[in-house]
Design brief:
The chain is of the alpha+beta class. The protein folds into 3 domains: 96 residues, Uridine Diphospho-n-acetylenolpyruvylglucosamine Reductase, domain 2 (2-Layer Sandwich); 150 residues, Uridine Diphospho-n-acetylenolpyruvylglucosamine Reductase, domain 3; 152 residues, Alpha-Beta Plaits. It is built from 14 helices and 21 strands.
Length: 447
């Protein structure tokens, strides 16, 4: 075992190393247990040794040692992923990036961060200069910059700024290769796709350069509807209202809101479908008028704030919706789906009518490929694997595509397929022995 190999340990002399069994188990997990399928497949998987680098030079030393000794290397950010992205399938070294957490600079609408900087810290620091992150996941408080670009795809802010994979959403990535003499490679422009959303299979991301947006004061609102069709059309119309500057537009069908705790009485009325909204100050009246046109009622309007002990509205949205439900009912799971362009609302309504409360509709409205669309993180009353895949097949008849959250395989996330060729080619250059997060890239395994 590498944790006790004197020669391997000597190659890492002076680095912070952890080999306590409890720490190995705890730090080798993410939120894969959202899926009963992944829970069966990944429970018990753990690294043999954790290395905690404090500099890029120390990352290089770990990568060099792993290449020399043929040891698998998996990178850990905030461990907020949902598909086992950072769970070591073959043991080896877990590279915990928590101490690589310097903000390098923020200037002229851009920021450069080491990979271990938490998104909360990056956003807060940017706001002090009049800027903010364009988008972030609902795990803003825990997730890291490097983890987000390596395992994420969109988030709060995507209603305005689209996807991480859109040109201009990420300006640069600096990666360390896994070779006996590792290289530092700066990726810009189309080359960013070589490491973006690659689960750390093609290189160790050590620095990230992001574009920033002007910081706005935001208002959180909830709109409630008796009729799901009206709610869905409101959410789409709201997303397409160019006069309203939005950061969040999230639809949850009843009974999903019944799982949410921490909001005042009356915010989530019994039996009502809700849309959770973040709009720039000055847009409140426009949102309220639009809701009224669709027979909706505003049940919450408050200033957005980040305080300990206070739950911001976005922590009920995106994949926090699934977490909120799992806090109450451990038997539910979820699907992650992409709706057909130009008919997303019709497909959303049809799927709600097809499945009802068995598949609780949850749609995140956003910009996708230059148009307003939605993706969904439906919360499913799980009964069996067979029924889960039957639901997927029925959704496919409506044009709703699966981005499979019950798989840790990179290529099973449908929206990332366009970058697969580029990532496979880059892995051959940057990780010739296939040591980076082995088992996650199916085409490398097949080759």
């Amino acid at each position: 075992m590498i944790a006790t190999d004197p020669a391997f340990r000597a190659a890492l002399d002076g680095l912070e190393l952890i080999d306590h069994p409890v720490q190995l188990r705890q730090r080798s997990r993410d939120f894969y247990w959202y899926s009963p399928i992944l829970k069966r497949e990944l429970d018990g998987k753990a690294a043999d040794l954790i290395a905690v680098p404090r500099s890029i030079d120390e990352v290089v030393r770990v990568a060099a040692a792993c290449a020399r000794f043929g040891v698998p290397l998996v990178v850990r950010g905030g461990a907020t992923g949902n598909y086992g992205q950072m769970v070591p399938l073959q043991g080896g070294v877990l590279l915990d990036m928590a101490r690589l957490d310097r903000t390098l600079w923020i200037e002229r609408g851009r920021g450069r961060f080491e990979a271990g900087v938490r998104l909360e810290a990056a956003d807060t620091l940017a706001q002090q200069s009049g800027w903010e992150l364009r988008m972030f996941p609902s795990t803003r408080r825990q997730a890291t910059v490097g983890g987000y670009v390596s395992g994420g795809a969109a988030g709060v802010g995507s209603i305005r700024y689209g996807q991480l994979r859109d040109s201009g959403s990420v300006l640069a990535l600096k990666v360390v290769t896994c070779e006996e003499t590792p290289r530092l490679v700066e990726l810009r422009g189309p080359d960013i796709g070589k490491a973006l959303h690659a689960y750390g299979t093609t290189g160790v991301v050590v620095e990230v350069e992001l574009p920033l947006a002007p910081a706005y004061p935001w208002v959180e609102m909830v709109a409630a509807f008796e009729d799901f069709t009206a709610a869905a059309h409101f959410a789409q119309t709201l997303a397409e209202s160019d006069g309203l500057f939005l950061k969040l537009d999230s639809l949850m069908a009843w009974p999903l809101p019944s799982y949410f705790r921490g909001l005042d009485d009356g915010v989530l009325p019994e039996g009502r479908h809700v849309i959770m909204i973040m709009v720039a100050v000055g847009g409140e009246a426009g949102v309220a008028a639009l809701a009224a046109e669709h027979n909706g009622t505003i049940t919450l309007q408050r200033a957005y704030r980040e305080e300990r002990g206070h739950t911001p509205l976005y922590e009920y949205t995106w994949n926090h919706t699934t977490l909120q439900a799992l806090k109450i009912d451990k038997t539910v799971t979820y699907l992650q789906t992409i709706f057909p362009p130009d008919s997303n609302v019709e497909a959303l309504i049809a799927s709600h009518e097809m499945f009802g409360a068995e598949v609780m509709a949850h749609a995140e409205f956003q910009r996708r490929l230059g148009r307003t669309n939605c993706s969904s993180l439906q919360v499913v009353r799980y009964t069996s694997d067979e029924r889960l895949w039957e639901i997927v097949r029925q959704m496919d008849t409506l044009g709703i595509r699966l981005s499979n959250p019950h798989s840790y395989i990179l290529e099973d996330k449908g929206a990332r397929v366009p970058s697969a060729d580029m990532q496979l080619a880059f892995k051959r250059e940057a990780d010739p022995l296939g040591l980076l997060n082995p088992g996650k890239m199916s085409r490398w395994t097949a080759a």
